[in-house]
Amino acid sequence: MIVLSVGGSLINPGEPDLAYLHKIAESLRHNRGLGIIAVTGGGKPARTYAEAIRKLGGNEFKADETAILSTRQNAHLLTAAIGRKDGHVIVPQDFDEAARAALSGRIVVMGGTIPGLTTDADAALIAEKLHAERIVNLSNVDGIYDSDPRKNKGAKKYKNMSFGQMVQLALRSDERTAGTHFIFDMFACKIIARSRIETHFVNGKNMLDVENAMRGKAHGGTVVKG
Ligand code: UTP
């Protein structure tokens, strides 16, 4: 089984990117035989709603609960793109339902689950639960760099790295000021490290790299493994 963590900003940078949804859906249909579980992030709507909740006096738990609804809306967008005729696509409520559906051969598209987590963590957890072969992380960045490539032109991209190296890098960026965040959150890093789940980081818009990563073939991103 393959778990894809699809960054919310790819699906919904402000409003749904229908062209992108069609492309990623096509790729999931094409690779269905691998056993697909896609986890969709919240994108801009999740941030907008969480911020509105805070301004209204809601606490972080409520902001998270609301943001989870955005991640689930994005999951529904992706299932619609995969195809109305395909009754084998499901948006599960929790990890158990996701696991049952995946084991029965359905394409699973899930959003967030529990307040306090991120969809990267959800992807790592469902991969751990199902002994997935690999995780493919799709984002706007084409791999893991030794510093933020958007801020540092000389940033160097890793082709391969160990779980330990990844956790160290995530720790270093955690220590920096708020606002700079690592490509994969610390909780997700620790889950893949403890269960040694091979994880590929690719630019989600580079469909060739996405396909290659799903199939465990060489690509232009970063592979984290033991
Ligand atoms: P993500 O942060 O995972 O989505 O979830 P994203 O849009 O892919 O993130 P970026 O911007 O591309 O990095 C959005 C929000 O949903 C809540 C959190 O508030 C999180 O910030 N969430 C998500 C949860 O509370 N629990 C979950 O299991 C997942």
Write the layout of secondary structure elements.
Elements: E1 2-6, H1 8-11, H2 18-30, E2 36-40, H3 43-55, H4 60-82, E3 89-90, H5 95-103, E4 107-110, H6 119-129, E5 134-139, E6 160-161, H7 163-175, H8 186-195, E7 199-203, H9 207-214, E8 222-224
Parallel strand pairs: 1-2, 1-5, 2-4, 3-4, 5-7, 6-8
Antiparallel strand pairs: 7-8
This protein binds uridine 5'-triphosphate.
Uridine 5'-triphosphate binds next to helix 1, helix 3, helix 4 and helix 6.
For the record, give the distance between the C-alpha atoms at the N and C termini, rounded to a whole number: 19 Å
Uncertain spans: none
How many strands in all? 8
Superfamily (CATH H level) name: Acetylglutamate kinase-like
- The tally of domains stands at 1
What small molecules does this complex bind?
uridine 5'-triphosphate
User: Can you give the mean pLDDT?
Assistant: 93
DSSP helical segment count: 9
* Lateral arrangement of strands in the main beta sheet: 3-4-2-1-5-7-8-6
| Strand residue content | 5-15%
Helix coverage percent: 40-55%
The CATH C-level name is: Alpha Beta
* CATH fold naming: Carbamate kinase
Biggest β-sheet strands, sense, barrel = 8 strands, mixed
Which structural class do you get from the secondary structure elements? alpha/beta
Q: What is the CA-based Rg, rounded?
A: 17 Å
CATH architecture assignment name: 3-Layer(aba) Sandwich
Shape: globular
N-to-C order of helices and strands? EHHEHHEHEHEEHHEHE
